[in-house]
Amino acid sequence: MFNEKLTTLHVWLLSTAAFLSGGAAFVFLFHPEYSEGPYANILALGLLFTFIIILNWLKVPRHNRLQKISFAVVILTGVPSFFELIDGNGFHVFFESLYATVKLFFLNLDTTEVPFSLEIARWFAVLFILSAVLNKIYNITTETFKSRLIGIVGNHYVICGLNEAAKELALDLRKDHKKVIVIEKDHQNEFIGVLRRNGAVVIEGDFLDYRTLEKANVINCRHLLMMTKNDTLNIEALIKTTSIFKQRKTFTTRKTRCCIHIVDPKFHKVIEEFEKEINNHSKTKNSLDLEIFNLYETTAKVLFRHHPLYKHKAKGEAVHLLIVGFGKTGQHILLQAARLSHFMDGKKLHVTIIDKEADYKIKSFRKRYKFIDRVCTMKVITIDVETITDLTELRLEETKPITYIAVSLSSDHIDFINGLFFWEQYHTIPVAIHMERDVNIAEWVDQNVKQFKTMYRFGDLQNIASEDVIINHRLDELAEEIHDYYCETNEGGGPSWEELSLFHKNSNRAQADHIETKLNELNFHKKRRDKIDPQKDEIVDEKEYHEALEGVMEQLAKSEHARWCAFHFTNNWDTKQTIENKNDAKDNGRKLHSALVPWEELAAVEDLLENTNYRDGNRKTVKNLYSLLKAKGYVVCRGKAG
């Protein structure tokens, strides 16, 4: 794909350069009589001009203006000067001249005859070297000074690891003039220059080194984010950072929020134990808050919030999700769909997976999520999607018609090409295409939304890796409000959101994610009170809401129980088979719960426990939904969400 920076000017310059270089080659090879004198100089400059433009187009690292100007002057004056001085004819003279000119940058001049033009080239070569040295010194001292200054003031953001997502987050923070320090050990990282030009400080060092962390003054930062794609590396960075906080000599009331990117659920237990250690240590319990985020999970959540699974689902029809590409994004799309696809009809989610390594990936996936088959049925097709020419051969709709397609392969370009292929075959159902960064294609899709009205793009890192999502938890607002409402209406109150374990936070998040599905079953949707349009929105009062529940309460309660079970199963909880006493409902350590049974078996479980009515709890969740939304600034509106 063409880069967005390849403008019309670049095209014209490249065309001109190609013409000059082609003409030069033709003349040198077939008309040697023009290889001397002014013609040779002109043709040599043409080749040189081509060389410089191509280097610029290929994104040779940019120096400051003085370096660029001095480099250009040396080449443009040195090559023609040596061309006049070197004896001989033909094409090789140009390369001899170019070689002699390059040696000027090493202060090496092989001739005693120095014309004025060569004198200029020689001194500009010296100027180039001096400017390069001074530029390096300036960059080092400036970055050091800025990092020291930010460290003294504090209240800054430290990001460990520089990748595409980290870059987008840093740029988003800089839009609001937040102080940002990024630690990256790869000196050749392509994003370093972008961040520095936008005012962020980049420390080129290892964030596992105490000295580097101290240089970033992590102990006084406002937010600390571990953003590499390696879970183990992020945990190591967390351990190093925590040890610095434990060694601090002064007391502070400032609390640092530490956000760590973790994908594999097997590390959740490690993080929870580490969080307990932080809360039990005198120097970290009041100075360090630990939170986990997962960009792949966030991508899946945002996809289904904007384009829900039920949007094109016919009444009584089971959801059949086709996932093309079963990498980390595809796997989290499956997990999120498994937690959301619970409707009044009680029909189980069916998933078809297409991937060239599907057999291996699904085995690994089932190892991490042991009970996924209790939540959905799956069909796995191991084939390279690039080789598919006829979808009928795959018999995708052998059991159920496809209702939703999500494409997430190796790159934006490949995703788009294959997304178009599937859209052409299934243009009446949603086709979601994963596109992180390809601005040109993304804009084209948005501009042609009427023509491709069932084709959507998702995963834009500018929206996913943002301050609102990662730091301000915009996606968690309703989950926190659910917990607050529970504490307000419960006689015994409850712990604050910050005091909840990761599992219980995620439980509230899963419940919040399903609210829109429940409302959709009643032909309602929710909306912020301050976003209401009186001309378009028909508000439903509490009486109308409860009237709508008549006759369907039991089905909605069943779907809520199925959702609750799916959340536990996808977090590797299992059914507790034996109940030894009336208070023996669950075993947190072994991840066992007696209520992880079908709705029809709940009555028998309730009889064995004291003061427990799981079925009534599910009914209350549905019944109290209106009051919850009203208390937290939402209204219920008639009709499907727009």
From TrEMBL:
Database matches in SUPFAM superfamilies: NAD(P)-binding Rossmann-fold domains
Stored InterPro entries: NAD(P)-bd_dom_sf, RCK_N, Trk_Ktr_HKT_K-transport
Domain RCK N-terminal span(s) in chain numbering: 157-250
Domain of life, per lineage: Bacteria
Keyword ATP-binding: no
Keyword Calcium attached: no
Transmembrane parts of this sequence: 12-31, 37-57, 69-86
Keywords assigned: Ion channel, Ion transport, Membrane, Transmembrane, Transmembrane helix, Transport
GO biological process entries: monoatomic ion transmembrane transport; potassium ion transport
Pfam family, one: TrkA_N
Name used for this protein in its record: Potassium channel protein
Organism: Alteribacter keqinensis
